[in-house]
Design goal:
The chain is mainly alpha-helical. It is about 55% helix and about 5% strand. It has four helices and two strands, in the order H-H-E-E-H-H.
Amino acid sequence: MRAVATTGAVVAVLLAGCGGTPDGARSKLVVRGRKIFASECSGCHTLVGREGRPVGGDLVLARLDEKDLASFARVMPTTRPLSPAAAAAVASYIAFRARAVGGRR
């Protein structure tokens, strides 16, 4: 849960204009993806760029492109299956976080 709070705080700072800020529709997609990630993915995955205790591992380290991240998100065991749009939002958020913590995407 601490990783979720930290991730949320980092995204809030970045979206407030401290660098790496997406704009327009992309920003809305990243914000939506953050919310979905927090509720559906953060129980098993982190986005901090190093392995810790998550069962599913850190997704920044996976170094997948957004298309592959969206495909991955669609098959994960979530509360309810993610729609293609929700999976794309999660993928955008993960890619955004990867860029923020120095990963490639």
